[in-house]
Protein backbone atom coordinates (compact mmCIF):
# COMPACT_ATOMS: atom_id res chain seq x y z
CA UNK A 1 0.00 0.00 0.00
CA UNK A 2 1.52 3.24 -1.09
CA UNK A 3 -1.22 5.60 0.09
CA UNK A 4 -1.55 5.13 3.85
CA UNK A 5 -3.67 7.66 5.70
CA UNK A 6 -2.96 8.41 9.37
CA UNK A 7 -5.91 8.29 11.78
CA UNK A 8 -5.28 9.89 15.15
CA UNK A 9 -6.47 8.52 18.49
CA UNK A 10 -6.39 10.18 21.91
CA UNK A 11 -5.67 7.13 24.04
CA UNK A 12 -2.98 4.44 24.07
CA UNK A 13 -5.26 1.98 22.28
CA UNK A 14 -8.56 1.65 20.44
CA UNK A 15 -10.63 -1.41 19.58
CA UNK A 16 -10.83 -2.43 15.93
CA UNK A 17 -14.58 -1.88 15.54
CA UNK A 18 -14.32 1.62 16.99
CA UNK A 19 -11.30 2.41 14.83
CA UNK A 20 -13.08 1.40 11.62
CA UNK A 21 -15.83 3.89 12.47
CA UNK A 22 -13.36 6.61 13.44
CA UNK A 23 -11.47 6.15 10.16
CA UNK A 24 -14.75 6.32 8.21
CA UNK A 25 -14.13 2.90 6.70
CA UNK A 26 -17.58 1.72 7.84
CA UNK A 27 -20.89 3.44 8.44
CA UNK A 28 -21.69 2.06 11.89
CA UNK A 29 -21.00 -0.67 14.41
CA UNK A 30 -23.14 -3.23 12.59
CA UNK A 31 -21.24 -2.64 9.36
CA UNK A 32 -17.94 -2.94 11.28
CA UNK A 33 -19.04 -6.25 12.78
CA UNK A 34 -20.05 -7.59 9.37
CA UNK A 35 -16.83 -6.73 7.52
CA UNK A 36 -14.72 -8.09 10.39
CA UNK A 37 -16.71 -11.35 10.60
CA UNK A 38 -16.49 -11.74 6.81
CA UNK A 39 -12.68 -11.65 7.01
CA UNK A 40 -12.38 -8.44 4.98
CA UNK A 41 -10.21 -6.55 7.48
CA UNK A 42 -6.45 -6.91 7.79
CA UNK A 43 -4.42 -5.69 10.74
CA UNK A 44 -0.67 -5.56 10.12
CA UNK A 45 -1.09 -7.70 6.96
CA UNK A 46 -3.07 -10.46 8.71
CA UNK A 47 -6.82 -11.05 8.44
CA UNK A 48 -8.43 -10.14 11.76
CA UNK A 49 -11.84 -11.43 12.82
CA UNK A 50 -11.78 -9.97 16.36
CA UNK A 51 -13.94 -6.84 16.59
CA UNK A 52 -12.48 -6.13 20.04
CA UNK A 53 -8.84 -6.45 18.97
CA UNK A 54 -6.79 -3.72 20.60
CA UNK A 55 -4.95 -1.46 18.18
CA UNK A 56 -1.99 0.66 19.15
CA UNK A 57 -0.11 3.50 17.43
CA UNK A 58 1.77 2.12 14.44
CA UNK A 59 -0.77 -0.60 13.62
CA UNK A 60 -1.88 -0.73 9.97
CA UNK A 61 -5.51 -1.51 9.10
CA UNK A 62 -6.69 -2.38 5.59
CA UNK A 63 -10.22 -2.69 4.20
CA UNK A 64 -11.41 -2.62 0.58
CA UNK A 65 -8.08 -1.37 -0.76
CA UNK A 66 -7.88 1.44 1.80
CA UNK A 67 -5.02 1.51 4.28
CA UNK A 68 -5.00 3.56 7.48
CA UNK A 69 -2.46 3.69 10.26
CA UNK A 70 -3.17 4.24 13.94
CA UNK A 71 -1.37 7.36 15.18
CA UNK A 72 -1.33 8.96 18.61
CA UNK A 73 -2.82 12.47 18.77
Record the SSE blueprint.
Elements (H helix, E strand, L loop, with lengths): L3 E6 L4 E2 H7 L6 H9 L3 E3 L2 E2 L6 E2 L4 E4 L2 E7 L1
Parallel strand pairs: 1-7
Antiparallel strand pairs: 2-5, 3-4, 3-6, 6-7
Helix pairs in contact: 1-2
What does this structure look like?
This protein has 73 residues and is α+β, with helices and mostly antiparallel strands. It has helices at residues 16-22, 29-37; strands at 4-9, 14-15, 41-43, 46-47, 54-55, 60-63, 66-72. The chain is globular and about 30 Å long. The mean pLDDT is 95.
Labels describing this entry:
36% strand; two-stranded antiparallel sheet; alpha+beta; 73 residues; 2 helices
Write a short abstract of this structure.
The chain is α+β, with helices and mostly antiparallel strands. Helix content is 22%, strand content 36%.
Rounded mean pLDDT is 95
Across the major sheet, the strand order is 1-7-6-3-4
Shape: globular
Structural class given helices, strands, pairing?
alpha+beta
Query: What does the radius of gyration come to?
Result: 11 Å
The largest sheet, given as strand count, sense and whether it forms a barrel, is: 5 strands, mixed
Helix content: 10-25%
Enumerate the spans where pLDDT stays under 50 for 5 or more consecutive residues: none
How many strand segments?
A: 7
- The string of secondary-structure elements, in order, is EEHHEEEEE
Amino acid sequence: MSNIEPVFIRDEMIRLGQFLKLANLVENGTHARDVIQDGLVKVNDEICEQRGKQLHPGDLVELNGMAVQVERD
